[in-house]
Structures are given as C-alpha cells and as structure tokens.
C-alpha cells in the first residue's frame, strides 16, 4: 500500500495520508541552519550543531512517535472550532491533506471547515533562519473569521543539558518581546552571544512566551488552552519553558487568500555589541532587524524560495540520467543525490533515529559520504577532507568522531577502529578523481588539531597506509582493533556486564584478532594511493605501496580464503569467523563484497565463487543480509553483533550500506543483471508499493531492512543518515551505469542489465558538460566510444584539450 506518490517533475514526494507508518521526514537548510520536519510538521531546528545549538525542543521516542514541532493552529471565531492544517497536533479530520517534501522545503496543508491552509517551510540560502509561509483561503460561500496561531517550544541551547538538568534550567529561561518579535535569550546575559527570534509579518492579536500560559495546566499541544479560548495571553517567560506563539486574526471574504510569514532564526552578535544600550541587559537588535524585515516581506520570501529551487536544480543538474527503469531515474536524478547532501551535512548526528546529542561527525562515515556528494559540492568536500584529516592522530589512526562546532576529535564513542584511516585515502582519492585539484595534497594539516604538527595532507595519507603495516596480526592480516566497518564485531571487547558500551570498552590487548575486511580495504586503498603517488612522480613510493598490497593479497589467499568465499576475521583466540567451520555466522557480506569490489580474486576465479556464494547464502528478496546463519545466542567473544536478535542490524539484518559493495563486485564480474537486481531490491522507490511492510520513507534509503531471520522481514529502520546513500549512488552511477571518474578523465564502462536497450546521461565533470548516450548492440559489456563523432581508443575520455565546454559521447555496447 502507498501513502503518497512521487511527483518527479517537481522533485517532490507527496504524502496524501498523514498517519504514515512512521514519521516521513525532510531536511530544511543545507549550510549552517538546519531543521528536520516530518509530514505532520513535527521536528526541530538547530544551528550547525544539533547538540550544542539547538533552537527548538524535541522529545524523542515519544508516544505518539513524533510530537512537538512547528505547529500552526486555525480557529473559527464563530464556532470556536480549532484544528491544525498539518493534522498533528490536533488530529482533527481534514480534507485534501498533503505534505509535499521537496528539495530543501516542505509544504503541508489541508482543508477543514471550508478553510484551506498551507504552510511552506524552507531555509533561505546564506541565512540562519527558517521561513514559514502560511496561506489561508476561505473556500466558504460566506465570510470567515479565522484566528491563526503559530507555535514553537524553545530549547535552552544544549539539547543534552536541556533534557536532563532541570534543577538549573527551570530557572534560566528568558525572553524579550519587541514590536511583535519574540526573542529567546536564555544565557545571553552571561556567556552566550547568540539568541533566537520568532517573528510574524502581521499585526498581532496576542502572543505567548510561557508554555504553561499557552497550553494551560495539564494540557498538551493537541488542545492548548489559549487556542481553545481564542486569545493568547501575552505571557512573558521567567524560567520554566519559554515558547513562541503568535496570534493573528483574519477576516476573509469568500475566496479570499491571505498570507502570513513567520520567521524562526538564529543570530550572533559581536561580543562588544551584545547589549543596547551598552551596559544594559537588553539584546542589541539593530544587527538582526534588517534580516527580519527582509524576509517578513512575502515577495522577498518568494524570491528566496526561487533561489533555493535554482540552487537544487543546478546541483542535481550535474548528473541526470534517463534509463528504462523509473526507480533508477528518480533515485539518481533526485532523491539519492539529495540524501547524499543530507548525509554530508548531518553525518549521523540528527534524524529521527539519531538524537543529535549522541554522535558527532564520524571519521569513517564522513569519508565514505564524500563518494556521494563530491561532484555536487567539491569546495565543501575539500573543506571536509581537511577538517577530517586535522583530527587524525600522529600514528595515522583516527578519532572515531568529531563535533562539527569545535571540529575537534573525541573518544566519546571509542577509538582504535582499525579501518578508519583507510577511508581517508578513499575519500581523498574520490575528490582528486572528481576535481583534478592536486593542490589539496600540499595543504598543511595538523595532527589531532595541534598547532605546530602540520604536515601536507599527502603525508596524512602515507600514515593512514602505514598504520595498518604497523598493526599486523599473527597471520599477517590487519589487526581489527576496536572494530572495523562492522561496529559490532568487537573481538577485543568481552563484555558480560549489562549496559557496558561495546564501542568504548576494551579488555583484550588487541594483538590477535584480525580482519579480512580491512585486508581488502588495505589493498583497495593501497592501489589508490599508489596511483596518486605515481602521478606525483613518486615512482619508488608507488612501487612500495603496490609491493605491500601484493604481500597482503598473498596473505588473503593463504589465510583469508575459506574454500568457497572469503573469511571474515580471526577472533582473539585465533579462531575463524565467517567460515564453513563455524557453527553460526559462516559467511559474511563485508569481506566478500569488499574484496571483490577491490578486484581481489578476479584472475583466479575466487571472486566469482565468492559472489556466487554471497548470492546463494546471503541474498534475499529484500536485500542481502550481513551474515548467515544469524547468531541465535550471545557469543561473548564476538561483541555487540550477537547482542541483536537474529535478523536485526549487524546480526543478519540487511545492512543497506554494504549491499552496494556486492553490486559493484558484480559489475567487476561483468554481471549487470545481478548488479541491477541487487540495486532494485533495496531501492526505496521500488519498495513504495510495500509501504506497509517497509514503513520508512519511500524516497530515501534506510540503514537497515530486517533480514530473513527476523519476524518483521522486510521492515526498514533508521532512514536518512546512513552510508547507504553514498554507496548506492556511487554503485549505480559509477559502476552499473559506469560513468566513472578517474584521475585521467571520465571513464565510460556500463555494466547494465542485458534487457536494457541503453540509456542517456548528462554529466558535468571538471567544468565540461558530457552528453552521453549508450546503445546496446550485443549482450556483453564491451564498449566502443566516439567522442564528438570521433572513435577513441579505450574508454577514458580525457578533458578536452581545446577548452570545449560541451562534449558528446556515444557508446556502443556489444
Ligand atoms: C550500531 C551500529 C553503530 C554503532 C555506533 C551500534 O549499536 O549497531 O550500527 O554503528 O552502534 O556506535
Ligand atoms: C553505522 C555506523 O555509522 C557505521 O560507521 C558502521 O560502519 C555501520 N553502522 C556498521 O556497523
């Protein structure tokens, strides 16, 4: 069953039923000010850091799931009836409810009691504020007297503290109200130089800033006393829970439409200009007032919205495809690219499943995210790479995460994940291939953010590589450390204590347990680094990298191959994991997918065997599970993995992040049918019809789909912030459609289904627009290319020597 439909022309998903199985959300903002908004207007806003600069309060894991947000109420002054056009929080019956989630904006509206109302929410580019444009239309035959109310609940900035430290926080809340603008200034009098504001374009019939005055005693957001009474109380918050609510009374003729603009924003004043008059305790508003005035004008708000649309048009325009498969088209052209920008901006910090107070930006995660967005935001990718590298440790190792506001690494969620450093090589390589900007390698970058420790970025890559060489185990495979990609394979953490974190506790010395997955990643990263070194004229160094990867290949062949597939690891006792000898967990996706992705075993048939075994043992109709058989009991020596019930998360769930490794591996074997079939099984658009089972949004990937061992096989969880976005985008764009960036130019190497007659694409690459058309003349993957009508040798199209800005590529597959 479906809960809406794709409007591809407008790049929107239109939800037509408010009670979706889970809140279906969208992101507002793409630079510094961000918001999360659900299909019923739930969610919250923050500036840069979801933990430390939270503007609005949100209560997680609520019942109902999603409660608290950017709610608007309408009240009929004649009948006294009131309702919310977004369904929540009043949940009154509505006609024509719709929520249009678009690129950086959301429009939610409906009709009730003959009054149509829609609110468009978005964040203008280059501003630290969100605009709510509420339009109210009288569809009755008679005049209507309607009061409108806005509402938000302020968070006292640090969302973690806000949710826990009540003995202090119930005393600190402060606001100012001036010319109808509500200013939230908790802690402004002391060490903060920032405040929030909530403004309204129309003359107010009232306002409230104290939650209890607005809601009334023992009442919730579904029936605020002041809304029910039809009159806000002009309350001023002193401590407790500051909120913002405006009341505007409208008299509407039949057919008449009125628009009200609300602004919620964040502003920082220079420390020496905080107060006006100086020496007082009153906020200096002179610097923010022009911005408020500008966006309260609906014409300016409209212009900002048009600018936002153009921004997304141009970002998405960098890569557009037309294939025979609508699900491929809309994910590549719209939603997957869009999700890649969200994962870039948020990493894994703020969604409805990541609280925004737990995780910062992950080192491993953010490097992989680069694969999905580097073509859309190369300058920001550059900055991200340099930020990440600056948190790297002198050993080449990495903090597992850093906070975006401070840009400092921390050990809060553990460290010593031995795969981490290699992802920096993968990320930098993707950047170089996309941009050709070799200067990044010469940028001086500190270690652990310590001034004086700066070395060229290139040196950081060297250390990433040697980090593994310094940490080889008894078989010569890389030591796994805290964990590798699979955060839950904690072979050095034996925990029998409830509540102990598998990510931060270590009780083994880490000198035995080894990872075949890291071995594959090491080979992959080593080859990438060798290619970079040789283009920098460092031939001997390149040979060293190749030499080391060759040695590792030999070790993998000897100790990493199980006969039919690649092993996964050796545990702290030197016993095999992911082997036919194991009782459970005999075969794993990560080592098989990544080794073959890295090209390991293509020459001797082991790659083919590994992919056949993966297909046979791990692939299901809903995607490929992590391992089989699922762990049916708790294995002390394996860590968190077997703490999950069978079929969920890392214990044999369908971890969508790693499915694309198998898709890419299949393209390396030339099997386009299988690659695209795997792609389609987890493609959210292709799963739209089974929305009741899938439950998450049909327009973005979820981290996990419950595996075949789970009672809820096929049910997705943890949508939005997952490496799934970047890897699926990369797999379909660069390996299945085969439009691949290389250090030397654009490679065209499609491995598409045999039934496809071809496809066309537009790709902007290093400032040149490539118009690509592929035609299938035979069943294979051999490609013959003409560039502007001239046949070329090979399949890499070098940037045009004569400065042309448009190039036509035709490819014949046979
Ligand atoms: C989850 C992993 C996640 C880790 C982060 C675990 O509980 O299963 O997917 O990466 O926590 O700390
Ligand atoms: C989610 C984490 O963000 C990611 O870093 C990890 O690789 C996967 N879980 C698998 O454990």
Quick recap of the structure?
By secondary structure, the chain is an alpha+beta fold. The chain contains 19 helices and 43 strands. A ten-stranded antiparallel β-sheet has the order 1-2-9-10-11-12-19-16-15-14, with helices on one face. Strands 6, 7, 8, 13, 17 and 18 form a six-stranded antiparallel β-sheet that branches. Strands 20-38-39-43-40-41 form a six-stranded mixed β-sheet.
Give a description of the structure.
The chain is an alpha+beta fold and 814 residues long. Helices cover 27% and strands 26% of the residues. It is built from 19 helices and 43 strands. The strands form eleven sheets. The chain has a ten-stranded antiparallel sheet with strand order 1-2-9-10-11-12-19-16-15-14, covered by helices on one side. Strands 6, 7, 8, 13, 17 and 18 form a six-stranded antiparallel sheet that branches. A six-stranded mixed sheet has the order 20-38-39-43-40-41. A hairpin with a 2-residue loop joins strand 40 and strand 41. Helix 8 packs across helix 19, helix 14 runs parallel beside helix 16 and helix 16 runs parallel beside helix 19. The longest helix has 21 residues. The mean pLDDT is 97. 1-deoxynojirimycin (NOJ) binds next to helix 8.
Distance between the termini: 40 Å
Mean pLDDT: 97
Shape: globular
Bound molecule types = beta-D-glucopyranose, 1-deoxynojirimycin
Report the C-alpha radius of gyration, rounded.
28 Å
Strand order of the largest sheet: 1-2-9-10-11-12-19-16-15-14
Which percent band covers the strand fraction? 25-35%
Q: Based on DSSP secondary structure assignment, what is the total number of beta strands?
A: 43
Note the total helix count.
Answer: 19
Percent range of helical residues: 25-40%
Low-confidence stretches: none
Q: What does the main sheet amount to?
A: 10 strands, antiparallel
Sheet/helix structural class: alpha+beta
């Amino acid at each position: 069953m479906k809960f809406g439909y794709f409007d591809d022309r407008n790049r929107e998903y239109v939800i037509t039923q408010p009670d979706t199985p889970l809140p279906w959300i969208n992101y507002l903002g793409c630079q510094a000010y961000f918001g999360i908004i659900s299909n019923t207007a739930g969610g919250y806003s923050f500036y840069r850091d979801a933990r430390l600069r939270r503007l609005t309060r949100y209560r997680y894991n609520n019942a109902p799931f999603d409660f608290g947000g950017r709610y608007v109420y309408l009240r009929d002054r004649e009948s006294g009836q009131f309702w919310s056009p977004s369904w929540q929080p009043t949940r009154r019956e509505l006609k024509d409810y719709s929520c249009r989630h678009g690129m950086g904006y959301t429009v939610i509206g409906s009709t009730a009691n003959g009054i149509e109302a829609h609110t468009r929410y978005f964040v203008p580019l280059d501003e630290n504020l969100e605009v709510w444009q509420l339009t109210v239309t009288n569809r009755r035959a008679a005049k209507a007297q309607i009061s409108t109310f806005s509402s938000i609940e302020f968070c006292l900035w640090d969302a973690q503290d806000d949710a826990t430290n009540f003995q202090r926080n119930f005393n600190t809340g402060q606001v100012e109200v001036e010319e109808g603008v509500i200013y939230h200034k908790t802690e402004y009098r002391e060490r903060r130089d920032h405040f929030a504001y909530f403004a309204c374009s129309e003359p107010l019939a009232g306002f409230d800033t104290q939650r209890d005055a607005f809601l009334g005693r023992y009442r919730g957001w579904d029936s605020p006393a002041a809304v029910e009474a039809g009159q806000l109380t002009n309350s001023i918050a002193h401590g407790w829970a500051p909120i913002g609510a405006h009341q505007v009374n409208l008299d509407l003729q039949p057919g008449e439409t009125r628009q009200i603009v609300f602004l919620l924003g964040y502003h920082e004043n220079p420390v020496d200009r905080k107060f006006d008059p100086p020496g007082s305790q009153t906020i200096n508003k002179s610097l923010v007032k022009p911005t408020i005035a500008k966006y309260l004008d609906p014409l300016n708000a409209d212009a900002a919205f048009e600018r936002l649309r153009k921004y997304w048009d141009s970002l998405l325009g960098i890569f557009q495809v037309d294939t025979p498969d609508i699900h491929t088209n809309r994910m590549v052209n719209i939603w997957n690219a869009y999700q890649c920008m969200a994962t870039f901006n948020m990493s894994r910090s703020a969604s409805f499943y990541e609280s925004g107070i737990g995780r910062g930006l992950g080192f491993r995660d953010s490097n992989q995210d680069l694969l999905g967005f580097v073509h859309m935001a190369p300058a920001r990718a550059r900055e991200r790479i340099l930020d990440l590298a600056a948190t790297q440790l002198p050993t080449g190792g990495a903090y597992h995460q850093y906070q975006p506001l401070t840009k400092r690494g921390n050990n809060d969620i553990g460290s010593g994940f031995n795969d981490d450093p290699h992802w920096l090589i993968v990320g930098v390589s993707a950047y170089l291939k996309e941009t050709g900007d070799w200067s990044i390698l010469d940028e001086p970058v500190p270690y652990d953010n310590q001034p004086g420790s700066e070395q060229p970025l290139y040196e950081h890559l060297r250390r990433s590589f040697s980090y593994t060489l310094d940490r080889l185990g008894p078989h010569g495979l890389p030591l796994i450390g805290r964990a590798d990609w699979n955060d839950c394979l904690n072979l050095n953490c034996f925990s029998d204590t409830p509540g102990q974190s598998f990510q931060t506790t270590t009780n083994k010395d880490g000198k035995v347990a080894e990872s075949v997955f890291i071995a594959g990643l090491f080979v992959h990263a080593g080859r990438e680094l060798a290619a970079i070194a040789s283009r920098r004229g460092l031939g001997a160094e390149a040979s060293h990298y190749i030499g080391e990867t060759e040695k590792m290949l030999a070790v993998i062949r000897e100790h990493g191959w199980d006969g039919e597939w690649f092993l996964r690891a050796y545990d702290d006792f030197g016993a095999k994991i992911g082997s036919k000898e194991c009782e459970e967990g005999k075969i794993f996706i990560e080592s098989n997918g990544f080794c073959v992705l890295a090209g390991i075993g293509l020459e001797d048939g082991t790659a083919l065997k590994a992919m056949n075994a993966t297909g046979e043992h791990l692939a299901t109709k809903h995607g490929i599970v992590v391992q089989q058989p699922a762990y049916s009991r708790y294995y002390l020596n394996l860590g968190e993995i077997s703490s999950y019930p069978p079929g969920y998360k890392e214990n044999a769930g369908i971890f969508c992040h790693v499915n694309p490794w198998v898709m890419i591996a299949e393209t390396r074997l030339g099997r386009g049918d299988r690659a695209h079939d795997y792609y389609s099984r987890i493609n959210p658009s292709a799963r739209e019809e089974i929305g009741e089972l899938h439950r998450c949004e049909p327009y973005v990937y979820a981290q996990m789909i419950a595996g075949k061992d789970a009672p809820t096989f096929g049910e997705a969880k943890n949508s939005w912030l997952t490496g799934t976005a970047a890897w699926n985008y990369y797999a379909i764009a660069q390996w299945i459609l085969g439009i691949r960036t290389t250090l030397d130019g654009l490679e065209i190497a499609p491995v598409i289904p045999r039934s496809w007659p071809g496809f066309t694409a537009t790709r902007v690459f290093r400032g040149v627009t490539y118009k690509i058309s592929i035609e299938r003349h035979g069943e294979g993957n051999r490609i013959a290319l003409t560039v502007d009508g001239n046949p070329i040798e090979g399949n890499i199209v070098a940037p045009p020597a004569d400065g042309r800005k448009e190039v036509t590529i035709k490819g014949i597959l046979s």
